[in-house]
Design brief:
Layout: E1 10-16, H1 23-31, E2 38-44, H2 51-61, E3 66-70, H3 76-86, E4 91-94, E5 100-101, H4 105-115, H5 118-121, E6 124-133, E7 138-139, E8 148-151, H6 153-158, E9 166-171, H7 172-176, H8 191-200, E10 202-213, H9 233-247, H10 255-271, H11 276-284, H12 288-315
Parallel strand pairs: 1-2, 1-4, 2-3, 6-10
Antiparallel strand pairs: 4-9, 5-10, 6-7, 6-9, 8-10
Helix pairs in contact: 8-9, 9-10, 10-12
């Protein structure tokens, strides 16, 4: 593996768990990049297949730094925190172990980043692009504004109602200040971090399809993820509370989605096991409009919580 002569512009981070059969996609993508100032960082969340042998073999061929870090299986949130801690690049971008990106992806993202005026760049945390499937069809909605728009993820979602898979990088220095909480078992949705980013930084959203998202995977990238609302309720409470407090300003643009979010926050709060001392600040920080919405939607949230419990008893 070659030594980096200078600090890389990007750290391309790949979290993986027993994905030796698909990891070659990420490898082939990074190897094909037209922009060479990056490192590839593979965080292995406890694989028991031949992932290590594959990555170490590729590292010997790579014209860029490749680092492989194995950890006991802990969850994607811990792998993400580890990647941010270890990243040497100015910018960090996640490329999952079953997806690819176009050869010009890093080159285009770097160009978009440098098109933001230097005097304004400190107020930006990221550049986000579009995704396509393996047949070249766009996944999700395009962004408003033509070629690009400067906004936040919350505004893009609730004001402009843009849905679907997106992909891009974040400034490593910003991510270091906003780690995922590791003291909670199970899933902590990524929105927990992105909603905090939105409070202080903007993102440049560009209408280019740079990531290829494969639809042929039915298992989780990192074990421990589940759709059981009670099992992952502690992390979901943190995420939903953050997203509601930031998103409520766009209520009149996306009232139904935010009402659903408020009802779901009531539901998962009833499921969660967080101590009262940790829950109270989440509710106390809610703006007045969000508190009123929580009050109005609480009957729905309680009803769905009761249905969850009934379903759990019926299944078990």
């Amino acid at each position: 593996m070659p030594e980096a002569a200078t600090t890389p512009k990007f750290t391309v981070f790949t979290p993986t768990y027993n994905r030796a059969r698909t990891l070659h996609r990420a490898w082939e993508s990074v190897r094909a990049q037209t922009f060479g100032e990056f490192e590839w960082l593979v965080i292995d969340d406890g694989s028991t297949d031949n992932t290590r042998e594959l990555v170490e073999g590729w590292a010997k061929q790579a014209p860029f730094p490749v680092r492989y870090i194995w950890q006991t299986n802990q969850h994607k949130k811990v792998a993400f925190n580890r990647a941010v801690k270890e990243a040497q690049g100015e910018l960090i971008i996640a490329l999952d172990s079953d997806d690819t990106c176009v050869p010009e992806a890093l080159e285009r993202l770097w160009r978009h980043w440098n098109n933001i005026p230097v005097a304004e760049r400190e107020g930006f945390a990221a550049v986000t692009a579009l995704c396509m499937d393996q047949d070249g069809h766009r996944i999700g909605d395009a962004f408003p504004g033509g070629d690009w728009i400067d906004s936040t993820g919350t505004e893009i979602l609730h004001r402009w109602k843009v849905r679907g898979e997106k992909w891009g990088f974040q400034r490593t220095s910003v991510m270091k200040t906003l780690p995922f909480p590791e003291d909670l078992p199970g899933l902590v949705p990524e929105g927990y971090v992105w909603s905090q980013v939105d409070q202080n930084y903007r993102t440049r959203f560009v209408n280019e399809m740079l990531r290829v998202y494969y639809r042929d995977q039915d298992d989780s990238l990192i074990t421990g993820q589940t759709r059981d609302p009670a099992k992952d309720a502690n992390g979901a409470v943190l995420c939903e509370a953050n997203e509601l407090s930031v998103g409520i300003r766009w209520f009149w643009h996306d009232s139904f989605a935010l009402a659903r979010k408020a009802a779901n926050l009531v539901r998962i709060t009833l499921h969660c096991t967080l101590p009262r001392s940790r829950l109270e600040p989440l509710w106390a920080k809610q703006p007045l409009g969000a508190r009123l919405l929580l009050l109005l939607t609480s009957p729905v949230g309680v009803a769905v919580w009761m249905a969850d419990r009934w379903r759990h008893r019926a299944q078990g």
